[in-house]
Amino acid sequence: MFILKRQDVEISSIQHPSKDQTIPILSYQGQTFRLIQVFKAGQAEEAKNFWRNLTDNKGKACVLLQEPDRHSVWGKIHREQVDQDHNGRAIPLIKASLLIIQYLYLEIEDLLGKHQAQLFKQEIAKTFHVLHFPQTDTPEAIEKIFTEDPLASLDTPTWDEHHLVTLLQELHRLGKVFFGNTNFAEGIREILEDIPDQEQRQFFAWLQKAALDKLWY
Fold first, then answer.
1. Which of 53, 81, 109 represents a domain boundary (last residue)?
2. Structural domains counted in the chain
3. Is-above-0.85 flag for pTM?
4. At 187, which helix (H) or strand (E)?
5. Three-state SS sequence of 19-88
6. Mean of the per-residue pLDDT values for the chain?
7. Are 97 and 54 in the same domain?
8. DSSP 8-state assignment for residue 192
9. Staple partner for 116: which of 16, 50, 66, 112, CB 3.0–4.6 Å?
10. Nearest Cα to 22, choosing from 12, 32, 37?
11. In what helix (H) or strand (E) does residue 14 lie, and over which residues does it extend?
12. Can you give the pLDDT at residue 20?
């Protein structure tokens, strides 16, 4: 049907009406699409063949979304097929991402000094601003993200999965810039060891689904 770029579409997520999971949703020109499959950056041809098979051979209305680090195929749905319920089960994913932010900030401060840590914080704040992350529009909100224990907080930011994908990509990029290598990502299981086992499994399964597993473990 269409081959699209990230700037062409809006991506959000909603809670599945009957299952314990969230559903990524892509909106394009008033049409709604549900994620079918994700391919890694080097699988461009596999993604295109999969998309062509669905559209040409099976008559499905699908779009292929091409991004620098992954490719994904989405099938058209009617929005009323699923209930609107943002955030929902994404909360464990958000808390894990907040722990990673705080870990990198403290490691940079410890190894490279307060000035570099502040530069890191500024870069993250810039990402929040440019990509319109909810609940990040004041200095107090930014400070809370870097200092408040996400496992104890009852006020988790209402970020969708597409926010988290972008955030973790940016955190990995910045970590490589500040540390000069990607060794920091190898300790992710230790970073998240205080999260309940079920939520850890959910987070790592989501990393793989979002094609982020090669970056973070």
1. 81
2. 2
3. no
4. none
5. CCCEEEEEEECCEEEEEEEEEEHHHHHHHHHHHHHHHHHCCCCEEEEEECCEEEEEEEECHHHCCCCCCH
6. 86
7. no
8. T
9. 112
10. 12
11. strand 10-15
12. 54
Q: Which of 81, 104, 136 is the last residue of a domain?
A: 81
Q: What is the C-alpha to C-alpha distance for residues 129 and 38, in angstroms, rounded to an integer?
A: 27
**pLDDT over threshold 60, residue 79:** no
Owner of token pair 């994908």: 165
For residue 94 the two structure tokens come to 């958000």
- CB burial of residue 212 (10 Å; 0-12, 13-18, 19+): buried
- Predicted pLDDT of residue 87: 46
Residues 102 and 182 in one domain: yes
pLDDT of residue 198: 87
Amino acid at 13: S
User: Which domain does 27 fall in, by range?
Assistant: 2-81
